[in-house]
Amino acid sequence: MHRITFAAPSGTIAAIPAKAHAHRALIAAALADSPSTLTLHRFSDDIDATIASLNGLGATVTKTATGVSITPIPRNASGRPHTTHGDLCPHESGTTLRLLLPVAAAVADSTDVTAHGRLPDRPLEPLFSEMKGHGAQFSAPKPPFTVTGPLTGGQFSMVGNVSSQFFSGLLLTAPIVGGASITSTTELQSRDYVRLTMGVMKDFGVTVDESADGNTFTVPAGASFHGRQDYAIEGDWSNGAIWLVAAALTGAPITVVGLSPDSVQADRRIAEVVANAGTTLTAGTDTATGLPTLTASGRAVNPLDIDLRQMPDLLPVLATLACGINGTSTFRHGERLRLKESDRLVAVADLVNDLGGQARLEGDDLIITGTGHLAGGQARCCNDHRLVMAGTLAALISFEAVTLEDSQAISKSYPDFFSDWNLLGGKAREL
């Protein structure tokens, strides 16, 4: 539990490494034909879960002073990464489970899969059915279970409105199963995460062909991942959003170092959202490191109208921003948020209301009537790291201190968050 009292953060902060980028690079390196090193200066529970799972599948991933070194999964006589038995332990990381489940079925004769928290109940269909159609077998419909292979390549077809991670997992597996083609039969939501996967795969030597309509992704037979040295993980737009929103709530300037303007991360859209709300954004370059900088200053004043289909993870912090803006803000198409660490639509609405705001659900849309301030008080974070961020930001517009239950959930993605908050002049203390 943490208590946050009003104090406007201000100054310069380095972006933490992008979790989505790190997951994918770690997996590509573990499946490569030679060792790799990744530059990764901070870790989180989710990244640690992927590291542990890759070690459980036969790779050797070791933390170093600058990041990690990866010795790939050993290869059998046919040149395919192979282990007799694997252990996949994603803990509460949905990304780890969804990206590595097809990998496990491809490289291991059998793999024991465990999960914790809400993860066992988060959807695995239609990935399950597609994997079964290509040789995988499961001992149970949800974790814990044992998956046996081998998974084969070929043609995969799935709806695209459940999770883009299903597509990314099959793409990452494709080079080691003789190639594959994966088609989305509906609009592919969170498409940018698939493009991030494609970018990482290209960095490690595998080109993914995308059809003209953007619905089919193909990895040809004979493709192979190659190891990389000193491969840098880019800054995280999802967590960088916290600092841009903090500046938008108070007007006090914050500069974030290391957010690439050329990133394909879905949550890079936060820059456009904040700018449209009236906050000034100024791009630059850090003289010491040569990394890009982005400075946010000036309070946001324009209500928000957000389609969540391509940036669902931004809802919690943007909901807090909406509370700080006079007027009605609307967040549309949030159905997939019901399947996160919490039913995030309900949890965000409850958090806003618990702190004295006005939020209501209309189906899968969230409507917030902002007054520029909140009352403060105690709020439930539902063991959801993104609600911890949203609740902390809420203290910047609250009359009273904000006390957050389940604040330890922040370690899932940003273990040093409260330290960084206080470093910039905020006031957060553990109870």
Describe what is shown at a glance.
This protein is an alpha/beta fold and 431 residues long. It contains 12 helices and 24 strands.
Question: How would you portray this structure in words?
Answer:
With 431 residues, the chain is of the alpha/beta class. It has 12 helices and 24 strands. The chain folds into 2 domains: 2-16 and 235-430, Enolpyruvate transferase domain (UDP-n-acetylglucosamine1-carboxyvinyl-transferase, Chain, Alpha-beta prism), CATH 3.65.10.10; 19-232, UDP-n-acetylglucosamine1-carboxyvinyl-transferase, Chain (Alpha-beta prism). 29% of the residues lie in helices and 24% in strands. Helix 3 packs parallel to helix 5. It is globular, with a radius of gyration of 21 Å.
